[in-house]
From TrEMBL:
This is Protease 3. Residues 60-183 form the Peptidase M16 N-terminal domain. The lineage of its organism: Bacteria, Pseudomonadati, Pseudomonadota, Gammaproteobacteria, Alteromonadales. GO terms for biological process: proteolysis. It comes from Catenovulum agarivorans DS-2. Endopeptidase that degrades small peptides of less than 7 kDa, such as glucagon and insulin.
Amino acid sequence: MKLKSLKYIAAAGLITLAGCTQTKVTQVESFPEYVAESDIIKSPNDTRQYRFITLENNMRVLLVSDPATQTAAVSLDVRVGSLNNPVSQPGLLHYLEHMLFLGTKSYPEPDGFNKFLSENGGVRNAYTARSNTNYYYQVVDGKLDESLARFSEFFTAPLFDKTYSEKELSAIDNEWSMRKSDDQFARMLINNQTSAAGHPIHIFSMGNKQTLSDKTDSELYAQMREFYHIYYSANLMNLVIVSQAGLDELAQLAKQHFAAIKNHNTPEPLVTAKGLTKNELNQHIYQKTINDIKQLILQFPYKIDNYHWQDKPFTYVHKLFNSKDENTLYDYLSKQGLINGAGIGMDHSYYGDNGYIEISYSLTDKGKNNKDQIIAATQAYFKLIQNQGIQQSYFAELQQVMHNNFINFNMPSPLRLATHLSPMLHTQPAQYIIKGLFDVGEFSEQQINQLLSQIDFSQMRVWHRGNDITATQQLTYADGQFDTQAISQAELKQWQQQAAAINLSLPDKNELLQTADATNADSAPSSATAEKLLKPTAIVNKKGAYAWLAHSQHFQQNQGYIELTLNSDLAASNIKQYMAADILKHLWTEATLAQTNAAQQAGIKVSVGEGMDKNLKVSLSGPTEQHLKLMTSVFSSLIELKVDERIFNQKKDEALAWLTNRDNDPLTAQAQKEMGSLIHATAWRYHEQAKALEQLTYQDVVEHHKKLLANNALNLFAFGNYQQADISTIMDTLLSKLPTNRQAADLYYPAEVKVSAAQSQLTAEHTDVAILQQYWLPEKSLKKFSQILTLNALYQPMFFKTLRTDKEIGYVVGSSPMQINQFPAWGFMVQSKSHSAEQIIEQINAFNQQFAAQLKMLPAAVVNNLTASIIQQINQPPKNIYQEMHAFLADFNQGNFEFDSRETLLANLQQVTLADVQNIFAEVTDPEKHQLYRVEVVGSKFEPAKVK
């Protein structure tokens, strides 16, 4: 369970704080009570059926029938969130979210729902956002009816077991303790604290034990129940159910289980108070961060026109801002050496019916000292957009990309679909619930101008973020300091004058965009009439050049994924070469920004990055017409790359800051990195990397580049709409780009892991302790891995409940199966603000003894049902081409060219018995039979509490 900040492009209002001034009581917008499946506009590529109904209690329900799914998913969204928190109990809605899952009248066991789901291949979670609270889960489809019976009672007959109140408060307090040292969390609190006085955004939304407590005029538990009875009203609820059942059956299930939820006719109090008034604008805000960052943010108040939800003027502005074309804003600032990156974002409902737009820059050292130039250039560019940039041709490009994305809609998983759509039903008509995601409306100069008029450089807040900033105001609920200072008239005049002297250009026409419709005959899948390769097949297989191709069995669309790795052992040879490869990757990324951005805006995702051991790679996904041409162009950029010393120094500084900041990562992330360093020979620790990088020279990278091109192997994987001849041709083309003196190499893969026990302890600036321990078995065995996989599905929910809820040890409590090179292992992660590493280990060992006793009494049917549900999940037909290829790509990256890991796992799972689970638990927890790897990360400010 978590607190979440959601950003939607569709219009969304927010529930207000009870009794808050400047609120407007409104009824939920009136949408049709029933929308037939034929009226819900969906992509021709979407095989699901949809129907929208309204129950008699005025609850809105979207039904989704997917005959191919083996997994059902459910999401219920309540139109109440953290902006409803009363002043007397900051974080109350978060507390309510936690308390709801503690048993119901018919199913009183506090952890009964979790246990039921875990035994039936399911998971569940919830989040509290500013405007809504969302509860969601998935389960094997055959258990949908029973799951709905259990789930619906949370909204008709919850027990709110008071004996667990203190335990859930501990969980919330641990969650807060984890986040309070996070710079982004601190930034959110600074933003809230410097917003308009009296606005409910000031109330601490997460809560902790200090804010969530009994007070003279407010008893926590009673106020929580009162809020539940007021706001958990059917008329403020949306429900989405995704299942293989037919629509009629789903409609019956929805009525059967959810019609009993009471409708209190609670009106929707919408916050209309401005979050940013003139008193909060024209301000510099200085945040002293923990991490070494250099960031400049320009923040503008923004209010969307709710009556034109289908129009997306921000998407239009986003397109122009993000262009990397010659002499556009990004290109200008980058070539001036002022920025490492830039972005524009929007949250239109952050404050209720209003929010903000932000333009953010990651700065170089030069940029940090020339912020005025960056602000002026930004002002100049937006003035250029206003005067010349509102063009039908740009809009047509955007419209075409969105249309093609709609036509080639990749169906998300049932759970992702349900959780995405349930909050949207509050603000968007059901018939457009799918199409609306891709609808940009009609070209409207007025709408675009209306947005641009709100990006007013005389009415903004300028954020300065860095660890070298001096600030004096201390935050209450986070680590960090800030200060504010008024923007002077002299500054405004200076920015205006500088802007007038900066000449920028608008983006060029995107040549990658095709004028043909994504579904016409010319773009029909090229593999439709050719021989289908149902499993990756070697098209090129010679020393130094390897290429594999497979076609989709399930989708006949113009989509594909292609990945090329420049395979070499050079980066793994020593840490100096490893860091040279890292910088070379950044230089290659920088050199291809214009190409990758143009492709992205044409609906093609291009990713330039790294694979194992810093092997450079590029991947493309999406419509395939331009893939081979783009692959050649991006690869040629690497071959022809001229290492620029200025950019080298810039990227080196940026990488050093990133490595240094890893000391401030969440404790769990630090533990996982250290564990990797214990297991893998080339997983050098961050401080080791930083030391090597400090000594790295420009010439080192030049030499690394030459060596890499002189000795390597090209390794290519393609899946989807490609012909065998295409793959042969592209490999010939790519090979021709390499230097004539290049030596062909065999494929390199890292040395096999040698399982040998190891331990490590780290210290971090924190108040908590994290422990990660893994039991590795010393022999390869996919059979034993499948047994651990089944064991963990039984173990994890009980482990979580005991240590997290009953013992109140920490918010992060988890276990997971894993394997490397077919060596099986079982791992445990716990983070606590109250228990030392020794105490956590004692609790894990004590629980294992209890679990062993329970395992002896477990009915065989439980394991049989569980393995069946796991197999059912794995066998579920893919929802899109990328899900279909996932297992093949994983095998490719691990060098398993039999491409049989999925089939092998399924075969082993089918043989798992209760006796196997009992035996593997005994084996994997036996110190004589496992190799123990343990990492402890101890906060320097950790103070163990008195253990109850």
